[in-house]
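hey m, so remember when u said the tokens were messed up on ur end? i reran from scratch. heres the input so u can diff it against urs
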Amino acid sequence: MLVTAIEANPLRSLDGVRVELAPGVVSVVGANGVGKTNLVEALYFALTGRSFRTSDRRDLIPFGASFARAEATIRDDDGLERRLLASVSRSEGRRHLLDGTPTDATTIARHRPPVAVFAPDRLSLIKGPPGERRAHLDGFVGARWPARGELRKRFGQALAQRNALLVRIATSGGDPTQLEAWDATLAEAAAALVAARTEAIAELSVPFATAAADLGLEGDAALRYAPRAAGTAEDIQVGLRERRPQDLQLGRSSWGPHLDELKVEAAGRSLRRYGSQGQQRAALLALLFAEREVLLAARRVTPLLLLDDVMSELDPDRRTRLVGRLGDGGQALITAADEESLPREALTTVLRMPLPQRKALAA
């Protein structure tokens, strides 16, 4: 599954831009401030309906404009092309369309490649709060096992229902035994989610350690999943029942996979707390490459890698190793300020910026 074209019309500094994309590695080269990251963001926005740089999609709207829009053309293994369009408007909100039709996120995900992004702003995945790592891990679970793609959503719905009932009982003096049904539902959803996360980390651990060492992260690098609730659904239901008085006092569920942690470590130390920025960059790259390797081995759809400003803190040898890891299929966009910072293997297809506006280009 390949992205064959991206259009931005308009988005941030881009307006009327269409770029045709080749398979393999496409290097986007240009001085700082010419829109390289904006192009990568436009592609991410078209595919996912979100931005990796901001939680407010309206930030994508150019100054003086009323909307932002990006469109991607995707070709599947049978040669069928589909179009994904994402837009955000100050007056009408956001839209995400598949072939011109509004579609739910799960359906859209089946018609696009998984997308993995490295960008300086994304270091929050390593050094930020646990919720970001949980969401990222659950996204990988959905890509690795599509049938499990709804586990996070199913658990979230059960959690919201139980929390609402906790508040209702606490404020109105209802019967706490009303929670039994939602305890059972939540426990079942929690057990399935924890099992999927555990299996995902088991598959990612070895390729993560290998990629981390290859990219210069010193010390034995490790991914470690630390679930708050583990065991069977019955075990988790017992735990929920034991914590019921505390949960009624708090008005929320104080135990479960919504509080789990994915720990990223090197030499036995948390990179979130003790890692330098260089170590955190290497860990983020290693995680993305580990996910890519696992999906390739499982013959799932190869992730599209968007690597923004990835070369700036790598020495020439590690730059070559990084690009060498992209030679086993799939597609990647790499941004760089100049061609001298890129290994020769990354210069087969080069897109030079700034792009002329209102004109189609090929890469």
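this time it looks ok to me. The mean pLDDT is 90. if urs says something different then somethings off w ur setup not the seq
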